[in-house]
Amino acid sequence: MNILMSQILELDNSALSLVEIFDRQKSIFDDIHAHTAFGDVSLSDGQELKNMLNGIVKNKLAAFDQKPEKKAKPAETSIQEIFVQKIAKHAQNTAESPPFYNIGVADTQTQSESWAFPRNLDNYQLISTPQGVVPVLRAVPIANSIVGLDWVTFSFCQSTFGDKYVHLQPEQVDLSIGDAIETWLDQLLFEIFGFGIAQKREKGMHFNKYGYDLQDNLGIVLYGHNNKRITVQINGTGCALARKGWNEQLYKFLKVQAKSPKLNRVDIALDDFESEWVSVDMANEWDTHNLFWCGGRNSEINHLGDWKRINGKGRTLTIGNRSSSKFLRFYERGKKEGDSLSMWTRAELELKSTDRYLPLDILLSPSTYFKGAYPALEILANQLNDFVAPEKCELIEKQANINVDKALDIIKVQFGKYIRQFRKFINDADLLNLISSDKDVVPKRLNFSHAAVMQALRIGESIQNKTIIETPLFEGVPFLTSNANFYEGLTHAI
After folding, report:
1. Which of 393, 424, 450 is the last residue of a domain?
2. Which of 14, 24, 335, 355 has its CA 20 to 30 A from that of 34?
3. Domain Replication initiation protein-like C-terminal, which positions (predicted)?
């Protein structure tokens, strides 16, 4: 009895996180139940201890609900307004009569705020509208690249917050994970992007029960999914207004700190303000010459906007299906923003991980994957003197391919018990000969993917030159030594 009382009092006097409170409550409750079952504590005393424990836990949870809210940033320092203020100051400093000291107007922002947002104004384009000249955000090119990142959705396991967050009960997820997001993740996002959590959403989305909005609607954080993952979505405005080098910092976090990191969606954009290198008419011509064909069935093409009856609102050409894992659009961005005379054209490639693996390297070298998406984009990038070798993302054909680990798992589940018993009286070599197929044929589930064939065709590399580690299933398979003409015929057959 005294031991249980001391445990309850220790809980009452300890400063614990939500997860630790729930864990300690469960441990003490189990001890009370055990002592009651063995007769060390009477039923009435046991019930009093449980009531005392529940009351203390209830008070601690109430204290969490009443903790002071984070100081809200003044309305005048919102990210978009700081962005506009910087443009205004920039214009004032370049007037015909600059201040005599020639150092411009003093910036009253703190040093930390100046580092929170782009310090060079290379993330906007001025356009003329009936309401006057206004700035429009654009995708900032990544260092040594012709393209910029215009949308990023990434996710990671909630065990990144600590192993104790993996085994939470459903009723604990909202408070416990929410507390970790408001403290740890909020600070991390600010360090990477320059903005953090704003407020909690009324409900989540995409099968996530809960969520938070980021500052100035620059993105969202979602959690409460059955897969126990945290999803962070940074929209186009967020990517344009984020810190310089945010992509490198995000890469480091996902590569080093995050548990089971994944890129769910990445948009790669190329802006041509004068339509010198890319326009919707050029893209339409490229389609005529089959420069968006990557083997198999031709991509779906749609013409949207004022192609026939010009109204100044702009045209859009889309390649592929919006719901697929690869979708490309060319559109007149300046006209879309309200400048009917603007020549600004954007090429935007949207990649999703529905049936495609998105490597983290996309964050560091997006032009490589931009070029690898379609022949037309490779030609375009080479014309712009960007000669980074194209590298196509490896497609995951879910119905036709499966990795070695999964295949072995299927064998173990379906036939593992038989094999284990047979090994007791048949040696391994004889057993393998007895249960192996008489035909040396690669199973359909282990066929190399359509992407592997197309990659070999594009870079002129034969698959048989791969090492045994890279393609262990294809050792000794004769058709892999065929020439490129065979691959081309195979491509049409897929």
Report:
1. 393
2. 14
3. 262-426
Identity (one letter) of the amino acid at 316? T
Q: Answer yes or no: do 388 and 419 share one domain.
A: no
Domain of 414, in residue numbers: 404-493
Residue 333 falls inside a structural domain: yes
Residues 381 and 419 in one domain: no
pTM of the model: 0.59
Q: Give CA–CA dist 409/414, Å, rounded.
A: 9
Give the pLDDT confidence of 237-280 residue by residue, as tens digits: 888 888 888 999 999 999 999 999 999 999 999 888 888 889 99
Q: Say what the alpha-carbon torsion angle 144, 293, 236, 390 is, to the nearest 10 degrees.
A: -20
pLDDT digits (tens, 9 = 90+) for 455-477: 344 334 444 434 434 444 444 44
Residue 374 included in any domain: yes
Q: How high is the pLDDT of residue 12?
A: 84
Euclidean distance between CA atoms 235 and 153, whole angstroms: 8
Are the C-beta atoms of residues 377 and 392 closer than 8 Å to each other? no
Compute CA distances 284 → 104, 135, 281, 287, 306, whole Å.
47, 29, 5, 5, 14
- Boundary-marking domain end, from 45, 65, 85: 65
Instruction: Answer yes or no: are the C-beta atoms of 194 and 242 closer than 8 Å.
Output: yes
389 and 270 inside one domain: yes
